[in-house]
Structures are given as structure tokens and as C-alpha cells.
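Entry:
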Amino acid sequence: MSSKQSNRNRSSAQKATAARTAPPARNRDLDRLNRSSPTSGGASRNRLLLALGGVALALVAVVAVWAIATGGGGAGAASTGTVVQGKSGTWTNVSADRLATMLKAKDFTFVNVKTPYIGEIDGTDLYIPYTDLQARAAELPSAKTAKILVYCRSGAESAIAAQTLLDMGYTNVWNLDGGMNAWTASGRQLVQKSRT
């Protein structure tokens, strides 16, 4: 075998080995881009991680603002209430335990909407049957952003009352989930007052 043929064979063998061990063309192009770029691949990854961290932080901020806006701040839906979508807005259903906590630092108008009157939860401000809310609107807070919490015996009439309040333009409406039944089932008492 001549030296030319031998060199050619070696050259072919070297090329074949190089082809087997070389990264695919796409990876080579990426490597070239990373080397020629003023930022290395690690810096690009760091920028991506920082951007993702910023997105996560923004999501946490949105959730926190939502919790504050809906009166939250506790440990989940059981402590803050459940948001219910009505036809023209939302109201928040709260448990009897949550209501008991809210009554300690009362910042709302508390309305019994049960018809007929069968008693009430101590601290009630108004008795307005759910069917009379629009006719007796003058008794309700004039500010449409005022917090109003309604209740009835089971939660059915107060859900209708909550929707009526939304229809009247109120935006901070709350409802006792389960009504007076839930209140008494939690070991609390009703009071009797002369209401008409």
C-alpha cells in the first residue's frame, strides 16, 4: 500500500471518528452561538430563572391582593368564605364560625332577611324580609361599597337577598351559609326581638 493510500485511509478513518463523536449540527450551531454571544449559556439560564421567579412573585402578589380585597387573610376558604358568582357580581358565603369571629370586630350591616320572622342572631342591625329589600332600600347603607351580611333560616332566602343586593348595585355582599340552622348547629343561640 502506498503512503498516499495509507494517508487517505487514515484521513477517512479520522473523519469517520470525528463524525461519530461530534455533536449534531444543531448542537454545534447552538454551541457556536453561545460562544459568540456576549452572554454565556449559564447567564441565559440565570436570566430565564430570574424571569420565572418574577412571574411567580407577581402571581403571589395577585393572590395576596385578592385575599385582602375579599376580606381574607385567614387559612383558606373555610376561614374567609366561599365566593359565589351571581348574575351581576359575586357575594361571599361565610360559615357560622367565621361570622362569630366577624361579629367581634363588626364592620358590616347585619341584615336578617327571613320571612316570617322567627328570631335572629344577636348583633343584627336590620330585619328586612328578602322580598322587601328593594322597597325598603332607604334603610340600607347609601354607599354601594358598604359591607352587608345577610342571613335567613337555611341560606336559601338570603342567597336570593344577596343577588337582589347585587342587582341594586351593592358590591360587598356576604351571606351566612346555612343560615340560622348552621348558627344553632354550631352551639350558638338565637334571640327574640319585637320586629315587624
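The mean pLDDT is 77.
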